[in-house]
Amino acid sequence: MRSMRRPELWRTTTFRLALVYGAVFAAGIVALLGLVYTSAAVYLTQQMDEIVVGQAHALRIVPPAALPDKFREIVREDVRNVNFCGLFAPDGAWIAGNVKQLPAGTPVDGRSRELKAPGFQPGARALAERLPSGQILFVGFDAKVLSGLRSIVLRSLIWSGGLIFVLGLSLGAALSLGPLRRVQAVQLASLPILEGDVGARLPTSARGDEIDMLATITNGMMDEVERLLWAVKSVGDNVAHDLRTPLTRLRALLYRVREQIGPSGAHADMLDQALGETDTLLGRFKAIQRVSEIDRRERRAGFASVQLQALVREISELYEPLADDHGLRLSAETAAACEIMADRELLFEAFANLVGNAVKFTPPGGTIRLRLSDLPEGPRLEITDTGPGVPEDEREAVLERFYRGRRAPSAPGSGLGLSIVAAVARLHDFRLTLSDAAPGLRVTLDCWPTAMIY
Fold it and tell me: Environment class of residue 230 by beta-carbon count within 10 Å: exposed (0-12), middle (13-18) or buried (19+)?
């Protein structure tokens, strides 16, 4: 189970919705301020045009001889420096006013328009017209008010946009923390289910929101799955339990008959065969009950400190004579101190099953190697053989009950050995992995807890 990392906050629906709503709200603010600015700009432009036209009209009725003095008076009284005026001779020579040169390209038609000449603020308005005397009258009005309004709107956009962005992020993060914690609680509650505990359930709250609805549906599904699983398991367990007693009686009866007729009696070979088949059935039923017992996790009370080196050496010494009889070479390599908390009896049974399978399926002349290494995470046991191996598409299936591999369908056994090993691994939260040894099979058992079982 990985911990909740900070980038996960960006992937939550609540956080994304908060960002979307913040973006929409910011866009609305921008649109509103833009509309206010546009309306104000249009209004101020109309006002400036009226000022320019009115001032031009007032200057037009002044006698030509008094115009220079009138221009100097206008300049002197313009304390805000917003009025532009200039009087020019018919050839364009300057006569009076604070505009020394007629802006290039200015139409002399008496119509007010935007003044785009250098030295004037954007948005300034002006007109130029020819007087009856032939002189050119130039009147303009600066756009300081409009520029000030533009600055105010721009600052408002920057501050409001930044504030909305920060508030949106903060609100999204704050609103996402609660769902994230609930999702994390669901994840933690799902781990036991993933590890095989079908009795675990997801937590719910009194909110009744979508997370609770999903958890409720999942819990209902798990109730039905648990019921069906235990119904299926109980059939096999009950059959195995109920048939062991009559089979044991049958074997005892066959044994007595075999003893009575003697080794040379009629049908002695058939009775020996019947005894062997009965022993096989009893072994399979015993293995079924063993897997069920381990899967019910009734053995955790037996956990204690286990020295894996001693356990591996014991298994090696136990199976070395059997390997010699099959023409195999069995070797064991153990690391330094490897001590874990486990059920020693179950580990011994699992290791014995793995080595027994390796001896069973490895052809004469092959090798079997046991290797116990001490990794930073914990001990790792590897059992490698030079047998036929297990195809990649069967490595999950061979861990199930009664599955027999395609490469050795006629080999003796019940198909329950690896099922017992998988059940022991699940009980201890160990990771059991089958891989290709090229040639042969490599079985890896990572002996540290909280490992995911695959």
Answer: middle
